[in-house]
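We emphasize that the prediction below concerns an isolated chain of 182 residues; any contacts that depend on oligomerization or on bound cofactors are therefore not represented. The input was used exactly as deposited, without trimming of termini.
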Amino acid sequence: MQGVEKGVLQCFKHPFAMIKEHYLNRACAYRFLLLGSFPSQASRKNGFFYGNPKNAFWRLLGEVFDQDLSLLQTVEEKIGWLDSQKIALYDLVESYEGDGWYSTDQALFKQGKNHQYSQKFIQSLLEKNPQIKICATSRKVQDLLWRYFGLKAEYLPSPSPINQTFAGQKRLQEWKKILKNS
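Result of the prediction step, given as a token string:
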């Protein structure tokens, strides 16, 4: 957020929290819960998860399922497509205190304080969908799920342009291995 004084902590809440009710109230047998950490500034500005055009999330999903997801222009279309594939999409962090909106895990977990996690939502979704496979798009999220909640998650190599460890075909092959072979 602009205009936040450096060193003054404010509470930043998840901008897409309303989607949780959609997943919990829908008669859909979700196969996957894809968990990120917290929406970036670009995602918040664009109104939905992975809204940064440089982020490969939607392109990777499209390649995994052999579909051109660039055609999905509205939030409703994206939610509809995710539901058709039985994919729930959310983040581990519900809110945090900080002196700015942090768009990277490093800043979020190093500078952010008093993180509130989406444990209640995740547990409710698991109760309703015991077959669901949790996939984390961040090693930090994967670690925190295990450390604090005892939940195992498959690691989907981060779609962030910052991730150079798993880039290109190597990242796509990992995504296919986890999402197609399940």
